[in-house]
Design a protein that fits this description.
The chain has four domains: about 200 residues, Porin; about 90 residues, Immunoglobulin-like (Sandwich); about 80 residues, Immunoglobulin-like (Sandwich), CATH 2.60.40; about 120 residues, 60s Ribosomal Protein L30, Chain: A, CATH 3.30.1330. Helix content is about 10%, strand content about 45%. The protein contains three helices and 30 strands.
């Protein structure tokens, strides 16, 4: 019977080519386009090391003796794969199956390997070629005694499997759920003999087999380098204007950090001491002058490019603004000796503490707060200038002035004076005539006018209401009111006429009015220079409409004898 090992080799190569083309097609469909950013999803390892259990199911015979190889239940497998990219790599594989029933073999292979990484699982396929050191099949039965020593042959492997990434230790470990390989081995033991034979049986073997494996997988490195660390800085406090002495807070925002690695932060500045070992730093500005300063931050998870980043942020220190002050006096006009309260309305734009002081051109001033008291004791009438001063804790000052007027002593007010009043209730027939009973009063009035030649006189005539005779009608009531007003005016005019004609008082010095006293009287008021007559309730008399009645007695009555 003839054996054709190359037919098996052809089948192996065909299977390996099919697997390789399938994985390459998957690679072409899922690989990112050149020039794009790193693909999203899993970041496969650079190196995989696998160690595990192996079962070899043999199918083949040594020809021409026809003695079959047995399967090997106990075995070990180890491999190491280095990946050039996410999908393709090169693998070195070692298989150890020494304890078969009548045989054993050790093999080493190398060749391309391909994978399709997913979120937690990875499918892989490989095609390997190498050397196999195989011994057997052997028989110790006397009738079939034979022995095949360990001899080197050639081997081919084609297959694949599935890995599962364990979530612990940063996905450092995985499980090879299964690896199933077709394994072909060809070996030449030398010239064949017949059994039994005490020597070497010889012959050739084309051994097909299935290799099933499982075990532990270890991952090292990554084919896609991690994205570089980024770092951005910003001044986060204070949010408004910065003045000397304010503490400036700078906050750094790192990106793309590896959560499994420690992070180191450092800070420096070209102005003011910087403190902080985290992503937040503080700058003390109390020693800084007005100007713009830069704070620089550095974050690091290593010394390799992409494992560190820098950032910077600027802040501007503004000089303190000087204070302002307003100055006022209350009252602003005082009599000699009276005090005035001075108020200074000081303000600092940065709310700096303020100190107050005052000065005055006359008098004395006391107080060191926002109010002070100006004393004018002994100060002559005139204007006093008061200066309000403020100074902040930085030595910046402001001043403002106000004035207080000290008035001259005022003269006593000039008042009008009521003189005597004339009654007109005695002469019922001539109720407005100035009679002799009034002469004494009028003489006193004239004397008062002579004593003060600059003074004027005001005569106010009054009248009791004139009664309506008989039945009252609107017309009668109107007529009675006119007579009441007429009597009052005539009494004032008649008194003036007496003073002018009989006492020589200048008529221009006398004014006449009607009043509302409701009595048949005439009241006289003297008005010195500077005084003002209160004309409330008074009505000026139109002297052109009222004729003075001469002051003369009634004719005497004559009695006729019977």
């Amino acid at each position: 019977m003839s054996y054709r090992p190359f037919r098996s080799i052809g089948r192996f190569l065909l299977a390996a080519s099919a697997v390789s083309l399938g994985v390459a097609s998957l690679n072409a469909q899922t690989a990112p386009a050149a020039g794009t950013t790193a693909p999203s999803g899993p970041n496969p390892s650079r190196v995989d090391v696998f160690m595990g259990y192996s079962y070899f199911g043999a199918h083949g015979q040594v020809k021409p003796a026809g003695i079959a190889f047995s399967s090997v239940d106990e075995g070990a497998i180890g491999s190491g794969a280095y990946y050039f990219n996410k999908y393709a790599g090169f693998e070195i594989n070692g298989m150890f199956n020494p304890n078969g029933q009548n045989d054993g073999l050790f093999a080493g292979y190398a060749g391309p390997t391909f994978r399709a990484p997913m979120q937690n699982f990875t499918l892989f396929a490989h095609g390997l070629v190498g050397g196999v050191r195989i011994g057997g099949p052997n028989s110790d039965v006397p009738a079939t005694y034979e022995h095949e020593p360990y001899t080197w042959g050639v081997g081919l492997v084609a297959g694949g499997g599935m890995d599962y990434d364990l979530p612990w230790f940063n996905h450092r470990f995985g499980l090879r759920l299964f690896e199933a390989d077709y394994r072909y081995t060809h070996v030449d033991y030398g010239p064949p003999t017949t059994v039994p034979t005490p020597g070497v049986l010889g012959g050739r073997a084309n051994l097909d087999g299935a290799e099933l494996s499982t075990g532990l997988l270890m991952h090292f490195g990554h084919v896609i380098p991690p994205p570089p660390i980024t770092y951005a800085c910003a001044v986060t406090a204070p949010t408004g204007t910065i003045y000397p002495g304010d503490v400036v807070t700078v906050t750094g925002t790192p990106g793309m950090l590896n959560a499994k690695k420690p992070v180191t932060y450092t800070w420096n500045s070209d102005g003011g001491p910087v403190s902080g070992t985290s992503s937040v730093a503080s700058v003390d500005t109390k020693s800084l002058s007005a100007g713009t300063y830069t704070v620089k931050g550095h974050v690091s998870q290593g010394v390799k490019p992409g494992q560190f980043a820098d950032c910077s942020a600027q802040f501007t220190v503004t000089a303190f603004e000087p204070p302002t002050v307003g100055c006022s006096a209350n009252p602003s006009q005082v009599n000699p000796g009276d005090p005035s309260t001075i108020t200074a309305a000081g303000s600092s734009p940065q709310n700096r503490p303020l100190t107050y002081s005052y000065s005055a051109t006359s008098g004395s001033i006391s107080g060191n707060t926002s109010t002070a008291t100006l004393s004018t004791s002994g100060v002559a009438p005139g204007t006093i200038t008061v200066t309000c001063n403020v100074v902040d804790d930085k030595g910046q000052t402001a001043s403002q002035m106000t004035t207080v007027t000290v008035s001259a002593p005022q003269a006593a007010p000039v008042l009008t004076k009521s003189l005597c009043t004339i009654a007109f209730d005695r002469d019922k027939k001539r109720p407005t005539r100035v009679d002799n009973e009034a002469k004494a009063c009028l003489d006193d009035i004239a004397l008062s006018a002579q004593r003060d030649p600059q003074a004027t006189l005001a005569i106010t005539g009054n009248s009791a209401p004139v009664e309506v005779m008989g039945k009252k009608t609107p017309e009668k009531e109107k007529k009675a009111a006119e007579w009441t007003s007429k009597y009052a005016a005539e009494r004032a005019v008649n008194e003036k006429a007496y003073l002018v004609t009989e006492k020589g008082v200048d008529a221009s010095r006398i004014s006449v009015y009607t009043g509302t006293a409701g009595t048949d009287t005439a009241a006289t008021t003297i008005i010195p220079t500077g005084a003002t007559l209160d004309t409330t309730g008074l009505t000026p008399v139109d002297e052109t409409a009222v004729k003075a009645v001469p002051r003369k007695a009634l004719p005497e009555k004559h009695h006729h004898k019977k």
